Description:
- By secondary structure, the chain is mainly α.
- It has helices spanning 2-47, 50-64, 70-83, 87-95, 107-122, 126-146, 152-179.
- α1 (2-47) packs antiparallel against α2 (50-64).
- The protein is globular and about 50 Å long.
Amino acid sequence: xxxxxxIIVFCLVLMLCANCKRQNNNFDKGLxxxxxxEKNLIDYYRTKDDSLLYLGLKNTEESLQCSQTRYQAIxxxxxxxxxxxxxxxxxxxxxxxxxxxxxxxxxKEMWHCYFHALESESIGDTTQRNIYLxxxxxxxQNYIREVNMPDEKEYEEAYHDIFFSKTNILNNQILDTISx
Length: 180
């Protein structure tokens, strides 16, 4: 009986080790793909070669599959789609995610509205653009009021997002005034 028990324990330990090795391989692949995608974006800023953005998108797909790099890969894919001005694909990507895919719950709606705002701006609809930007600001302010954020970095990030959105509205209003 003791021998059977030892064999079962040995098999369980062996299975755990194999599972950890698979997870480490997944992490290594995810991290490697994320670093490649990040480098693609950095190289794009230097060269303005759009093919680097498409390559970055391809590289983010693998890093999205790794739970350890998923948050960063989501942010990176959003940045890549934004740079490509592929707004429809941007909000469709955001819509395909759940709130739990974001560290801060308001981020899903924020990015959804951000892509819609950019799309509205690209067709010259500044009124709709501002409606989306104001919706972003309201959503973040509600989140701050309703959620107890024990982490100071969360507050900083939330207020940074509000500032970014308000700056977009102000800059666009100034540009609209100048062009009229």
